[in-house]
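Figure 3 (text version): structure tokens given as input.
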């Protein structure tokens, strides 16, 4: 995970991750849309290793694709659910 820090007048985000294994499925991300709305996601994919990391990468892509809808959390979650259902069975 990339180390990032965001400081603005109304929000301060500082991220840190210390992995137990070199590859795994713990994941967090945050993004801001063009209207200034923030989206923050924290995930823990079951298991360790390549398969969990793969599911975390899929989750990151599904989350990134929802950037235009950050002001509507229900749309973000619905879109992510639609894109991930059937692809990550038993791992998330």
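Below: residues designed for each position.
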């Amino acid at each position: 995970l990339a180390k990032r820090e965001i400081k603005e007048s109304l929000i301060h985000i500082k991220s840190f991750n210390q992995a137990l294994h070199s590859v795994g499925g713990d994941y967090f991300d945050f993004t801001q849309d063009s209207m200034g709305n923030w989206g923050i996601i924290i995930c823990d994919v079951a298991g360790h290793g390549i398969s969990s990391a793969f599911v975390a990468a899929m989750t990151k892509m599904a989350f990134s694709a929802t950037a235009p809808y950050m002001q509507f959390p229900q749309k973000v979650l619905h879109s992510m659910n639609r894109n991930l259902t059937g692809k990550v069975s038993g791992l998330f």
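Helices lie at 50-64, 73-84.
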